[in-house]
Batch of 2 targets.
Target 1
Amino acid sequence: MSGRETPARLWRRSALVWLALSLLLATTLGGAYLPIGVWKLPLALTIAAAKAGLVIAIFMGLGQAGGAARIAGLCGVLWVLLLLSLSMTDQTTRQQLPPGFGEDRAGQP
């Protein structure tokens, strides 16, 4: 807690962030029922990124942290992006089996 941060300011800031996260949650829920087709996933990911940004900046204190903590946070984000890209690469390069190829053939030689 810095010299200017009073407990009242901390509670007020936390309450405002909680309210923003709750509104983003309601937006996510509402967006799931909108008939927007393929735009549902980008909308949900954008809202999730906003929620993660709020948590990282406010509750984790990365906004006021030093350089080493920011680099560690950036490394964490890059690591998650690497894992997601490798997972998507694996999924897109798998060979799809023709129908009936992988079925159980009990009783056949």
Target 2
Amino acid sequence: MMRDAVQTIGNLIDKQSVSLISSVDIDGFPNTKAMLPPRKREGIKSFWFTTNTSSMRVAQYQDDPKACIYFFDKRFFRGVMLKGIMEVLEDAASKEMIWQEGDTIYYAKGVTDPDYCVLKFTAQSGRYYANFRSEDFDIE
């Protein structure tokens, strides 16, 4: 595996203003959506995103938690795909952990808004592309 993979990939992720997340629909097809960057991450293993509880994506993750997230640096044409499991969290502690001032623009009733939830992605493996080559890796 590449040297300092967690740091290299983490730096790439932290510099992006868009995240791509994918779910599996009822017919088994992948569905991909652009999202804001994760609100929190721990290494390249765990990521937390905000979203609407009423969204199609939440329903898909509740039916099938298999997921993929992707980050790319278009300037240097490099990217990382992470595969794993997406959990839908609606508990107060998770919601408060990543709530930010100004989120009421999306969730009018504040941190307790029933249409506000947290997506927690836990990576199991990944694929990194840079310098005209790809490398698969597992995440422990």
